[in-house]
């Protein structure tokens, strides 16, 4: 072991587990890639003010959890705690919204950083796959994203997850609700921190997980009862579209999320096998964010699904993804001459698109065959001096154990035919 360990709240992805992780990431991205979303990648850090303004200074993510630092050159930066603000910043910077029809649909995948109190499912470094549809106010987009996330989870075999849906209203109706809620909250018995929150961001108080707080919140005014006609109609349309796609959801009038930029549609995917860190993904509409970071009005909607928690959800449901072995063919040379020849064969097979590996290091037949077994390869190519003198190699089927001499000059084709 080295003197160093992975930093607190982080963990390494190591084979074979890492293959599950990659497969989850791919499965989440797959429905996006075939639904018109283009890939976007942004830096791991940004101007700290992008998040302060975009995500909101009063949020935990910005006020407590951000890895903010000053560079030697005096730039104030932060490791990205979430993806939406960066993606919108990138889209605006590249003027994507001026280059054709809106919405601009983008997907991304990467690492995010929050200085949180680590526990199972809550890390300081985690991975998300996200999607954003920028520049259109269309309930079908909100519905599309929810349906695609549902499809992604289902394609992995997950079943014990629920979709919670709410509307947070817009700049017309939310202020009226905000005031009503503040009036209610000011009358409760709350600590100083929470009292301050009432004045800055009262909706977040609804999200307080403490039982003593939740008890007092019974009877709090609900946004649902304050939505303006436009928001109500919009929300009904989103609900109808999701329903007609056969996707089941639950209305959750108390659902607010930890980021300030959400308007209208908000949703969360929760998994019932994960204990307290049950949110596997979430998102919503953020019609005001572009203007908050200095852009034009660009109503948008998006989500981010957590890869780490999705992997935990699979474990909770006892689902093991069927991941094909990375290697199809494993080459075992017996002797120096065979090493040279088979090393060339390996390169030829790889060029022909066959996933091939080579037994490195001198280990004798037993050691080599152990390597071959461990690789999970379907076929082993074994060759010694006598085989080479005859211009053949032994092609061994690792499942049946059958072995057959195959001419060296027809080997690539013979392997390809068998694997097909
Ligand atoms: P949020 O941006 O907070 O809505 O997060 C979206 C998703 O990212 C969540 O539903 C989680 O699956 C995942 N996530 C957020 N924070 C963490 C964390 N600290 N550790 C692991 N996953 C996280």
CATH class designation of the largest domain: Alpha Beta
CATH architecture tag of the largest domain = 2-Layer Sandwich
Contiguous uncertain segments of 5+ residues: none
Distance between the termini: 43 Å
Ligands bound, unique: adenosine monophosphate
Work out the radius of gyration: 27 Å
Shape: elongated
CATH topology-level fold name of the largest domain:
BirA Bifunctional Protein, domain 2
Total number of beta strands: 16
Q: Classify the secondary structure makeup into a structural class.
A: alpha+beta
User: How is the largest sheet built, in terms of strand order?
Assistant: 1-5-6-11-10-9-7-8
What percentage of amino acids are in beta strands? 15-25%
Q: How many alpha or pi helices?
A: 16
Number of individual domains: 2
- Mean of residue pLDDT values: 94
| CATH fourth-tier homologous superfamily of the largest domain | Bira Bifunctional Protein, Domain 2
Share in helix: 25-40%
Described by strand count, sense and barrel closure, the largest sheet is: 8 strands, mixed
């Amino acid at each position: 072991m080295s003197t160093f360990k992975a930093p607190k709240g982080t963990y390494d992805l190591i084979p074979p587990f890492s293959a599950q992780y990659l497969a989850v990431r791919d499965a989440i991205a797959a429905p996006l890639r075939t639904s018109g979303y283009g890939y976007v990648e942004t830096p791991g850090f940004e101007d700290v003010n992008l998040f302060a303004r975009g995500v909101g200074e009063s949020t935990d993510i910005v006020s407590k959890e951000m890895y903010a630092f000053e560079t030697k050159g005096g730039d104030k930066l932060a490791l990205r705690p979430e993806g939406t603000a960066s993606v919108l910043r990138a889209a605006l910077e590249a003027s994507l919204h001026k280059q054709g029809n809106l919405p601009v649909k983008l997907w991304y995948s990467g690492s995010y950083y929050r200085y949180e109190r680590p526990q199972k499912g809550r890390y300081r470094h985690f991975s998300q796959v996200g999607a954003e549809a920028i520049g259109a106010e269309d309930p079908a987009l909100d519905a599309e994203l929810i349906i695609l996330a549902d499809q992604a989870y289902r394609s992995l075999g997950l079943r014990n997850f629920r979709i919670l849906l709410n509307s947070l209203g817009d700049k017309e109706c939310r202020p009226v609700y905000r005031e009503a809620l503040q009036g209610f909250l000011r009358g409760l018995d709350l600590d100083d921190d929470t009292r301050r929150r009432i004045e800055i961001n009262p909706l977040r108080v609804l999200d307080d997980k403490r039982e003593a707080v939740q008890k007092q919140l019974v009877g709090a005014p609900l946004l649902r009862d304050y939505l303006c006609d436009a928001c109500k109609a919009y929300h009904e349309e989103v609900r109808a579209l999701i329903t007609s796609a056969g996707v089941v959801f639950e209305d959750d009038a108390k659902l607010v999320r930890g980021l300030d930029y959400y308007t209208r549609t908000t949703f969360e995917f929760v998994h019932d096998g994960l204990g307290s860190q049950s949110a596997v993904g979430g998102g919503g509409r953020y019609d005001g964010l572009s203007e908050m970071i200095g852009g034009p009005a660009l109503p948008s909607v998006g989500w981010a699904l957590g890869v780490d928690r999705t992997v935990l959800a699979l474990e909770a449901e006892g689902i093991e993804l069927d991941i094909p072995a990375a290697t199809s063919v494993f080459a075992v040379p017996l002797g120096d001459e065979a090493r040279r020849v088979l090393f060339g064969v390996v390169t030829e097979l790889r060029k022909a698109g066959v996933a091939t590996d080579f037994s490195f290091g001198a280990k004798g037949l037993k050691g080599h065959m152990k390597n071959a077994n461990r690789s999970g390869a379907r076929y082993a190519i074994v060759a010694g001096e006598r085989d080479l003198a005859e211009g053949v190699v032994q092609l061994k089927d690792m499942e049946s154990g059958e072995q057959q001499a195959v001419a060296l000059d027809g080997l690539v084709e013979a392997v390809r035919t068998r694997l097909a």
